[in-house]
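Quick start: load a record and inspect it. Here is Glycosyltransferase family 39 protein:
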Amino acid sequence: MSIDDVVGRANAELLTHTGAAYGALFVIATAIRATYWQMSGDKIVPSSETFLSLCEPLPADFSGFFAILSDFGPYWTLFSGYWVPMCGVYKVAGGSVTAVVLWQIFLSAATCVLIFDLGRRYFTPLAGLIAGLFMAGMLDNFAWTTRLLSDVMFTFLITLSLWQLHRYRTHRSRANQFILAGILLWLALTKPQGLPVVVVWLTFDLLPRRYDLGYDIIPYRRVSALLAGVLMVPLLAITIPWGLEQGIKSWRDGLLVQFDPTFTYEYVPRAATGAVEFLLVNIDYMIIMAALKTILFYLPVVGRFSLLHNAINMVTLLPVTLFGFAGFVKLIRNRKHVARDLGVPVIVLTAIVAATFIDYSWGYRPPVIPSLALATGYLLTENRWLSTRS
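Running the structure step on this input writes:
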């Protein structure tokens, strides 16, 4: 029996037993996450304490309300897509951290099933299953389920956005359009990195129709673009100077990984009087550091990670990274709409890391894994050395 026959039979079996395959993948993913939770326990970090503080009742008086805005302003707004449902679970369960962890385990396992289903819709059932299994076993995904942070929700919403983008493209309706808009808004409010991802997806709607890359999410595109531009000008005027001032220290110090001096680019910066001038006169160093951060972002082995952590990364993260980017090359040639959908989170989130820094625990990496896992599933089931399909 040829490999093509094996692949064809696997796809046929998965089509016949789709529900059972979804259930089995969910059970596998849940078991892996539950086992990790039993091994590591809950992890309450400073940001988790901030989120839990937001679960307390709001003060009735305006002074108390504005004091909370002053203390937790960025968390109150930029992470509201996470802490609002998280606090709902926390409160309904009587202030139980365990309930929140169980909720995050469910979300993470559901993300694996969503990936499977999306791969089935994009490509073939086998491609989806391969992507879902990689997601299930990826430590970068399940390690965050035990921490009360926005990462699990953000990865779930990236995947849900991809799923709904595909559904809207294949089943155009007003209902699907509104559902997609709601999911994208939720994504933008869950983590600061979400808004740039959403903006880039929406930007495709501003391209001329002859490119056939728009989603048609935005009604009256030119009017909407004008209004968005008017609103964005004051926002950018405030946020860009603030962001430059916040980032200048890490750039000046050559910081590549947050709180880890092991990963530092040693150089002598040229003198400058302000953040913009600093970037301009040191642009060559900025480019070098951006390239180094991009490479380190996908590094599977880190010295201070445990032996088990590095071993799991070598078995899951390394092949997904290598095959995933190779799969993107094939997608760009053969499936431009899929390459557009999956490529935006990878490009935008990698660019943000290149322009800022890598999180100490590589926590910015999980949201790019869904796209890479799907591209891996596509490559492994469509490439000529495994299948004659094109």
